[in-house]
Amino acid sequence: MATLKTPLLSKQEAIKFADKWKSFSDEKQHARGFWSEFFRTLCGVDDEEIAGIEYEKKVKSSLSGNQEYIDVYWKNVALIEHKSAGENLDKAELQARGYLKSLPPGYRPRTIIISDFANFRLIDEKLNRTHQFTLAELPNNIHRFESIISGSRPQALEEEITVDQVAAKLMANLYLELESHGFEGHETSIFLIRILFLMFGDDTGMWERNLVKSLILRTKEDGSDIGKTFDTLFTVLNTPEEERNKKLDENTLKFPYVNGGIFSEDISIIDFNKKMRVALINVANYDWGSINPTIFGAMFQLIKSKDERRELGEHYTSEENIIKIVYPLFLDELQERLAAAWDNKKELKKLRQDLAKIKVFDPACGCGNFLVVSYRHLRQLELELIVRLNNLEGKQDALQLDGSMGLSITLNQFYGIEIEEWPAQVARMALFLTDHQENLRLERITGATPNRFPIKDYANIQNANALRFDWRELVKFDENLFILGNPPFIGSRMQSTEQRADQELVWSGSRGFGMSDYVSNWFLLAAKFGEKTEVKCAFVSTNSVTQGDQPACISALLENYGYEIDFAHRTFAWDNESTGKAAVHCVIIGFSFLNHHSEKMLWEYASPRSNPIEKKVRFINAYLIDGPNVLVGARKSPFSPKIPPLLTGNEPRDGGFLSNLDISEAETIRETDLIAAKYLRQIIGADELLNGPGKRFCLWLTDAKPSDIASSKILKERVAQVRENRLKAVGTKSAKARTADTPALFSRVAQPQTRYMAVPSVSSEKRAYIPIAFFEKEVIVNNAIFFIESEDYSLFAILESHPFTMWVQTVSSRMKSDYQISASSVYNTFPFPDLHASLKSDLSDLGKEILEERTKYPDSKLGDLYDPLLMPSSLLKLHKKLDSTVLKALGVKIDATDSEILGLLFSEYARLSDDKLL
User: In the predicted model, is pLDDT for residue 155 greater than 50?
Assistant: First the structure.
């Protein structure tokens, strides 16, 4: 939806507003004045008509067919239903939901607001979230309206996730109590899943409210009879009413026959004690009715150590992020079909038939979050369809919703593979509970709900290693299948022996996978199993698969199997809904065998945590750039002979005896050995470049006379130590051994003969610019950094620009999360612009200005000057000016997005590299 730029809403104004309106109660007399003042004083709306606010908006009810009126309709922002004080807000919500469904798709705001002067109820339809507070509490909740108006992620969501986490923690505490008394493993997992089901059922009308809770409270205080009580209950829930023992407790017999496999397995009785009973009562006392099943994964996460989570690559995901996959993969198209068929019964019925064919498959489903969100939104879409179809057929007073509702969307259409038993169990349960929640929603809107007991429909969750299991045994691959998920985030260097073996099996000896992240296995299997079908896929991945060498892997597997990227999200922070939540930098890649989309959709982010900007493009390459389908390959030299080479510094391989002297050692040499002192030189590596030279010295003996070495005790001893150190490598393939006969020299000598630029070989991903500096030829450079023998300040300026940094970020390999700059794959491949004289002069001047500006901060390290949190504004301003000039040199408009800049760089690379790759 369109976003509005709004100031931070004033808490003080909210206090005044709440105080003024606390005594008003009559809707007809005062509702319009209430909201008009709310918009003006709190939301900064000067002109309601321009803002798109309508009072008493006419709408034809999809339920009754009558002409009705929305109290307040704010286009693209909110639908407001206002009542007189004391009226039933639940009834008002049903009325508002009816209005919302009566609006054509595309005209429905994301938020419903219910109020009776004294209370507010805010409902986020997209995320299925509700928050309620009183007028007196408005000042502390004003931020919720701010996020609604701006269209951004609700701040309330963070708080409500925390509420869900309380439930997760309660369940985790129960698990820990069981575990501490020796109850763990498969049977304990089954027990906890059943408890979760019972708690949810107790609070959502599956049976008489608090029936389970009262059962627990009637047990002995020491907990000794709890195990037997639940064993009996589990048996009852798995037995048809007519076959039950009639002598059982009357309250126990009130439970329905559930079946469906939840209670079918016999498990051992768990012997409770007092402490375990308290943990169980705490769980029972919590209200589970509004819990979002996507948080259930946190229950799994909380009972495992951090190291175990990292090993498995688990990241439990927020619904907001899941929507970034689910909608472009299939829901957007379905919503468009619904909108197009809104007044056409035949097309609506055809859409409903097609809904029954859809299959959603997550081959790394974890606790089922992607399946849960997909199921919920498909059910909601079908509900809109059913209500609209009945309205068109004149059945608005009798929706003919029988016991099964005739629903097209069922749990049987959902498939998952999960390697761990506990999350697989959670996934099955989360989907069933989501089904129940949607049935309750159905009941609120239509007055009817299906009876799901005994359970017949169940999601198809396979407990298996997805990399060693043939996916086609679980689900049929055809045009109705949508594959999605966030497979484990494990880097190539972090994989276990078993995971490496999995990867070798998946790739079956293919070249190029060795440095690929673990997630690449899911891309390959999806492409392989779905080859020559119309299956559509979308995975979340760490952004490393689109950087450095890995795009070649993704590109090759897509091209080899005939796939193209249909949509993508460039790098953003992927949050989850769990305690200690991970925020890794991720991308989303959606792809299909047949080119289903003539226009591709690309979302990019100004920063990893900013809102996405949607862009229609013609093609998306493996770097997730709107650019040519090229892969950046290593080159031996830059494209232009005018560009000097980027060279590696001197390589010591000396055990530190010549190359690693600190200040005190250098001072000792100066005081005690005048001959050795002649050969003392400053040496710089990555640390000295970023944190200041002058802290480390070396003995540079390339021109040393043999007589000097012989007559200097220090030189003689250190050269001997170097020789001894290198001789230890003799008999190996080490290059170190080959230089044992020249112990006075570094293993490889490559010292610049002129003033030079020092370029770090690794740079932090946090920096917007790469710290580069000039040094005199007398300063020795080691192999931890690169150097360029040049005083070309225009070249320095380009290397210090944002476009060059983006190139590094995109095509470089990674060391952990930092960028690894290399000559062959980064510097030599950059399409340096051919500068005319005036532009070259402008860039040279800006390069000198930047160097001069740095000297104004003599006490600051170079690394600190380029730390985003510490960078002086004056230096940043110069870099921004430099960026504009470099963009001009590249022929890019100054306000171009990063994606547009990269697109041009890739196009220029493709032009230059045609038949020129070395």
Answer: no
- The total number of residues written for the chain in this structure: 918
Please name every residue paired with 682 in a beta bridge, in sequence order, or none if there are none. 697
Higher-confidence residue: 151 or 901?
A: 901
Q: What is the mean predicted confidence (pLDDT) over 16-26? A: 90
Q: β-strands 414-418, 584-592: how paired?
A: unpaired
17 φ/ψ sector (left φ>0, alpha ψ -120 to 50, else beta)? alpha
- CA proximity to 69, closest of 79, 148, 391: 79
What architecture (CATH level 2) is domain 319-617? Answer: 3-Layer(aba) Sandwich (3.40)
> What does the pLDDT read at residue 595?
62
Q: Give the Cα separation of 187 and 177 in Å (integer).
A: 15
For 122, residues 6+ apart whose C-beta sits below 8 A from its C-beta are 111, 112, 113, 130, 131, 132, 144, 145, 148, 156
Q: What is the pTM of this model?
A: 0.73
Q: Please answer whether residues 429 and 297 qualify as being in contact, where contact means their C-beta atoms are separated by less than 8 angstroms.
A: no
Pairing verdict, β 818-820 and 813-815: antiparallel
Question: ∠ at Cα 626 (621, 630), nearest 5°?
Answer: 40
CB 905 within 8 Å of CB 628: no
CB 173 within 8 A of CB 45: no
C-alpha count within 13 angstroms, C-beta hemisphere, residue 828: 19
Answer whether 548's CB lies under 8 Å from 491's CB. no
- Binning the chain into helix, strand and coil, the percentages to the nearest 5 are 45, 15, 40
Q: Name which of 59, 63, 73 is nearest 442 in CA terms.
A: 63
What is the domain partition of the chain in residue ranges?
A: 11-152, 160-291, 319-617, 632-649+756-918, 654-682+695-749
- 90 vs 624, which has greater pLDDT? 624
The verdict on domain 11-152 having CATH code 2.60.40 is no
Pairwise CA distance, residues 484 & 588, whole Å: 10
Backbone dihedral angles phi then psi of residue 117, each to the nearest 5 degrees:
75, -55
